[in-house]
Design a protein that fits this description.
Elements lengths: L5 E8 L2 E11 L8 H5 L13 H11 L37 H4 L3 H13 L2 H10 L5 H22 L6 E7 L2 E6 H4 L8 E6 L6 E3 L6 E4 L6 E8 L6 E8 L2 E7 L1
Antiparallel strand pairs: 1-2, 3-4, 4-7, 5-6, 5-8, 8-9, 9-10
Helix pairs in contact: 4-6, 5-6
Amino acid sequence: MKATNTLEAWVPDPRDPSRGHVEHYLLDFGKSLGAMARINNRLYAGFAYNGDLQVLAVTHMTTRARLPWADIGPFPELRGLGWLESERFDPATWKAMYPWLPFTRADRFDKLWGARIVASFTPAQIRAALGAARYSDPRTVDYLARILGERRRKVIERWFREVAPLEQFEVRRRALCFVDLWLAHGLGGGAATYTAELDTETDERRAAARLDGTVCFADVPASFVAEIRVARPGQDELATRVEVIASKVTAIERR
């Protein structure tokens, strides 16, 4: 990722050319899915910026510190396969080839947003995208589908821990409901505890999640502000503030 690999295009409204919208494009995927690492012999791809290599090399020679990509591989000899793995992949330390401000300045809320997009791709969609590449060896598709699936899980598991991954807030039949993406994507780890503190009440409410990850707090008033907290075994408690006016969700503030 770098600025020259992006394009912003203004698309005028055919009915009124003075109005329109901007479409955002990412360009140049010719060496994706590990092709850059293999073709250009860059095993450090994903582990270090291009500009950091000299510093890392000197550090390695003087301190014998182990390079993050040392001893990576071997990779299967499959037609069309680049050097891409999932075991050493760490979403928290992953680096693009060049520092890019939206990545280096991203906070945990930005990363939750990105993880939600990654989570939205189903295994079937990943396989369909790989199928569109028309690999001549079906084993290459099988390998990449597994690797991308494992990297996907690492991404969502890492960033869903930082901010409560609660989505699709709505009031239906006098119940405030939402979906816990952690459960919806089967990340496991034990049962979660959900509590809600409404500004119209003095006591906390508790609710349990359904198998599909849906959680509902019943018999809520028409207008209120609720602090919803999620506690999972082995994780810090996470909170989300929700405002409801006239039975419509009007604001969501992630804490």
